[in-house]
């Protein structure tokens, strides 16, 4: 089916590419796609196009990659040119998903129906950059997608619709991301169909209370602090898969990445052992004492190696009971 509602799309990672693909497949014309400039990535640090750019180029859609949209920022000329291009591109609405650039009021005012954002949390909880990671890390029972009408605040706009979903006990950021990306794609297409049909979308202000902020994941957060309860460490490991991974550093300086782990009640030797002490090594897992309970590591990676289930990891490792992991410096 072909639609007449013209959609400018702004987004960068895989989460956004899935929404763009759904909008395109539904038959909405997309006269312009905005995405972040190509970034160095991988071993060779070659410039790589974002998933959104790759989709756009494969489907013959025009792409713009301004480094900024703020005239008073570091790139005033490029921002001005991009804003001129937006004004010169006939369209009805702009859809924004994990774009990564701030949109000033001047840009929000250009589309006749404003800018609709696809955000991966149940707002106002987890506004900001890393809502999927933070929801898992905090032990939330559910999360979802919120569509909102954008304003200049950080994820503060009025809510158009939402889709809720449970967070399962074995969810990682990778698995939850994929379900949320699909839900976001479905929700935005439904909203665009409704906008075309009725000429407007109803929205409601976000609740005044319950707002939390999902700070971007910093590399230093990867270090597992064994003084914390095992249940929190297990959530951290799931939240940090696929990035940056949990890191446990042996006293000899070997940094192991921890990709899967489960919390146990402290039994026997784990109860007396200092946090960070390896109390048991078996094909079932490497058990490490923590501040409350113990953590069984079941998927590990040594420097330069691959992610391996514990049985395979132990075949090429000298990890043994009695060894200790360093405690990170408290920040």
UniProtKB/TrEMBL annotation:
One of its GO terms (molecular function) is methionyl-tRNA formyltransferase activity. InterPro entries: Fmt, Formyl_trans_C, Formyl_trans_C_sf, Formyl_transf_N, Formyl_transf_N_sf, Formyl_transferase-like_C_sf, GART_AS, Met-tRNA-FMT_C. One of its GO terms (cellular component) is cytosol. It catalyses: L-methionyl-tRNA(fMet) + (6R)-10-formyltetrahydrofolate = N-formyl-L-methionyl-tRNA(fMet) + (6S)-5,6,7,8-tetrahydrofolate + H(+). It is an enzyme of class 2 (transferase). It comes from the Bacteria. Pfam families: Formyl_trans_C, Formyl_trans_N. Residues 7-192 form the Formyl transferase N-terminal domain. Residues 216-317 form the Formyl transferase C-terminal domain. (6S)-5,6,7,8-tetrahydrofolate binds at residues 121-124. Its EC number is 2.1.2.9. Keywords: Protein biosynthesis, Transferase. PANTHER family: METHIONYL-TRNA FORMYLTRANSFERASE, METHIONYL-TRNA FORMYLTRANSFERASE, MITOCHONDRIAL. Attaches a formyl group to the free amino group of methionyl-tRNA(fMet). The formyl group appears to play a dual role in the initiator identity of N-formylmethionyl-tRNA by promoting its recognition by IF2 and preventing the misappropriation of this tRNA by the elongation apparatus. Belongs to the Fmt family. HAMAP family: Formyl_trans. This is Methionyl-tRNA formyltransferase. It comes from Paraburkholderia sartisoli.
């Amino acid at each position: 089916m072909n639609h007449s509602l013209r959609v400018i799309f702004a987004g960068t990672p895989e989460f956004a590419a899935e929404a763009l693909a759904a909008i395109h497949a539904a038959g909405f014309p997309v006269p312009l796609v905005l995405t972040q400039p190509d970034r160095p990535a991988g071993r060779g640090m070659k410039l790589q196009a974002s998933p959104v750019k790759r989709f756009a180029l494969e489907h013959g859609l025009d792409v713009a990659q301004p480094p900024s949209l703020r005239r008073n920022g570091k790139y005033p000329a490029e921002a001005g040119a991009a804003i001129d291009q937006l004004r010169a591109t006939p369209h009805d609405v702009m859809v924004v998903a994990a774009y990564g650039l701030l949109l000033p009021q001047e840009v929000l005012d250009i589309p006749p129906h404003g800018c609709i954002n696809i955000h991966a949390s149940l707002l106002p909880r987890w506004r900001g950059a890393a809502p999927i990671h933070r929801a898992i890390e905090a032990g939330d029972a559910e999360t979802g997608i919120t569509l909102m009408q954008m304003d200049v605040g950080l994820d503060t706009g009025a809510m158009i619709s939402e889709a809720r979903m449970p967070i399962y006990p074995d969810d990682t950021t990778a698995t939850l991301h994929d379900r949320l990306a699909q839900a976001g794609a479905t929700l935005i297409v439904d909203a665009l169909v409704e906008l075309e049909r009725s000429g407007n979308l109803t929205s409601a202000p976000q609740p005044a209370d319950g707002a939390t902020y999902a700070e971007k994941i910093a590399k230093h957060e990867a270090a597992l602090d064994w003084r914390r309860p095992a249940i929190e460490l297990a959530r951290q490991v799931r939240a940090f898969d696929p990035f940056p991974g949990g890191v446990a550093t042996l006293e000899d300086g070997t940094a192991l990445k921890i990709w899967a782990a489960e919390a146990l009640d402290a039994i026997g030797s784990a109860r007396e052992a200092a946090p960070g002490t390896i109390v048991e090594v078996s094909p079932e897992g490497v058990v490490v004492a923590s501040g409350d309970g113990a953590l069984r590591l079941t998927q590990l990676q040594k420097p330069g190696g691959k992610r391996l289930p514990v049985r395979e990891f132990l075949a090429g490792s000298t990890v043994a009971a009695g060894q200790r992991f360093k405690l990170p410096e408290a920040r």
